[in-house]
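Support request, please re-run this one:
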Amino acid sequence: VELEAVTVQDFESENCGGMKIQLYDSTDIEMDAVQISRTSAAEAGGAICFYGSLYSNLSLSKDDLNIGVTNAKIGGSIYIEGPGSFSLDNILIRMSSAVNGSNIYANNFTYLELSGIYDSYTTYDSEYGCFYATSAQADSEVVVTQFQSGGRSALQGGGLMYFHNISQVTIRDSVMSACNTQRGLGGAILFDGVESIEISNSQFVENTASMGPALACIGGSSFANMSYITFLDNRVTSFEFGPDIYSDGSCTDPFWYSLSRCPLEYSCHSCNGTVCSLHQQDCFCYCDSLCQEISHNSAETSEPLTYSTLYTTNTTQHYHSTEPHSNRTTTNSTPMATIWIMGISLLAVACITIAIATIIGIIIILRAQATSSNTNSPVSVELVAMDSDDEVY
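Re-run finished. Output below.
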């Protein structure tokens, strides 16, 4: 099947607002410059639906498909129903929305790859963010590369991405910024029952959630391979800033409990690993993939801070641990508090020094005045004429 220079617009339907494609084991489909816009579906697939079969394999690449101004209940732009394998590369999505589900909604697939997806001016007043993936297939896998999106929100969890019941999720070379979830976990990404997680060469910037503004893990996970990740100014909803990651205790990889303060203030280079968090007020190291091979912490000289809730007051940060079987609580002064303490101490020393100098000066002045008084006083001398035989009484 070949679709070339096809434009679909101004359609409404119960499902698959612009186009529905059923894939069979032998289906070979090619798209070139297909554009779908101003379409909607009451249920699934505001722009297009793909239905796979056990051995079907769909691959769409650059300039194949452009989507704009679409909406649906779930899958505001694209709805995918497995089984089968699906690869979407360099798909442009603009100004689309979903009511209860994500803009790209994938269900029951074997393999799903998203590469170079650009999601522009898209809104989600839904349970999940831009991309939701779940599957009952054994050994299901999701690969996300070069994904760029920002300013996305979800009501329940996973402001940008929500992965549920997936065997393996891999994310590489991506930037996720300004994403948030109003009441849920994982401002950028929520992993729910994902056995193996791998993230590399990615940034998470200014994301917000009630817990885990960058990443959150629940529902069980045994492996997390993390490398070359930077967290920048991610924030917990109720406080100025908080931990970038969160686990409910069911995710057992050391990464989720490896937070430690940077050995050198505000220096990610001082971390022993390649995963670091920078806030306006502090710097933290996390355990990277080496945690699977070595037993020491990510920061060579820092004591680990095992916790799942970090909150701040005006002068103090408190780290409370909810790692399984941990009752540890640690309190550390913030750099601003340290500066205030040092300033007050220096002021006190200066005041004491001035007081001592003043007292010494007064003593010197008084002694000088006393000496001068003795030198200038008139001396009375009485001369007595005596004969040699006179006695003086």
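The radius of gyration is 35 Å. Residues 293-335, 379-393 have pLDDT under 50 and may be disordered.
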